[in-house]
Specification:
By secondary structure, this protein is of the alpha/beta class. The chain contains 11 helices and 11 strands. It has a single domain, classed as Aldolase class I (TIM Barrel, Alpha-Beta Barrel), CATH 3.20.20. The longest helix is centred in the C-terminal third of the chain and has 23 residues. The mean pLDDT is 96. The protein binds glyceraldehyde-3-phosphate (G3H) and zinc ion.
């Protein structure tokens, strides 16, 4: 069965590794991710955005994740990514999600705390874990777009208070990463990660994990990151493989001919990330 993030996040925090959230956008993504994790014997999180949910349908999403958990025997959490309301979080929980993110980062601090609290209260009663978010993470993900100039770093004191009042199971804070690919290199504020992670018992979450240099990932984990989200790198690998296969043959009509290399390319991306995050053999 699917598990809550509390099956593996406490161990990640204690042993200084990070668990990957890999976003599921279709069946091939789901297969690539679970195959990589099986080879690495790693726990992982399927992240599903509201856009992806609309695309796949909630029943297929849950059924695919459950099939992956059954086939692999791995601890897998099915997690709503950037949930925008209490209602969508409850809809996911009722459908079988084992974890949800409530992203109230665009509200003021007080309102964000109040709304997140309500989600935590309802989710906890169902054994479902919750991620909260503070500060605004720049870039574009599905319908979510934040101008990078408007992205503001989380304030450590506010993050600590947010944790204490909401009791979330992990906390995403804006520390300099962005959704999508980077133009230059992201400037990560390790001091913010460290200050928050030292003061709360749950891990800090790093969003926008695609395109972050390996060394920056290692330093982030050392500072207290215990969950890292990756989506764009898999999208790029998938699309490049398909484009290549289509360019190589003008007559191909069988989708399996271009989806197989796409799936293999994503599997390689995920396997590399799992090793980098240090979650191999932690299942
Ligand atoms: O919530 C999802 C992640 O933050 C994905 O970010 O597409 O830049 O890897 P990314
Ligand atoms: Zn994100």
């Amino acid at each position: 069965p699917l598990v809550s993030m509390n099956e593996f996040l406490p161990k990640a925090k204690a042993n200084k590794f990070a668990v990957g959230q890999f976003n599921m956008n279709n069946l091939e993504f789901a297969q690539a991710i679970v195959e990589a994790a099986m080879e690495e014997k790693s726990p992982f999180i399927y992240g599903v955005s509201e856009g992806a949910l609309k695309y796949m349908g909630i029943e297929f999403t849950v059924a695919i994740a459950e099939a992956a958990a059954k086939k692999s025997g791995l601890p897998i959490a099915l997690h709503l990514d950037h949930g925008s309301s209490f209602e969508v979080a409850m809809k996911c929980i009722r459908a079988g999600f084992s974890s949800v993110m409530f992203d109230g980062s665009h509200y003021g601090l007080e309102e964000n705390i109040e709304l997140t609290k309500q989600v935590v209260k309802a989710a906890r009663a169902m054994g479902v874990s919750v991620e909260g978010e503070l500060g605004t993470i720049g870039g574009v993900e599905d319908d979510l777009s934040v101008d990078e100039a408007d992205a503001t770093m989380a304030k450590p004191e506010e993050a600590i208070r947010f944790y204490e009042e909401t009791g979330v199971d992990c906390l995403a804070i804006a520390v300099g990463t962005a959704h999508g690919m980077y133009k230059g290199e992201p400037k990560i504020h390790y001091d913010i990660i460290q200050q928050v992670a030292d003061a709360i018992p749950v891990p800090v979450v790093l969003h926008g994990g695609s395109g972050v240099p390996d060394e920056a990932i290692r330093l982030s984990i050392a500072a207290g990151v215990g969950k890292i989200n990756v989506n764009t790198e898999n999208q790029v690998a998938c699309t490049e493989a398909i484009r290549q296969a289509l360019e190589a043959s003008a007559t191909v009509i069988d989708p399996r001919k271009y989806l197989t290399p796409a799936r293999n390319a994503m599997k390689a991306v995920v396997q590399e990330k799992i090793r980098l995050f240090g979650s191999s053999n932690q299942a």
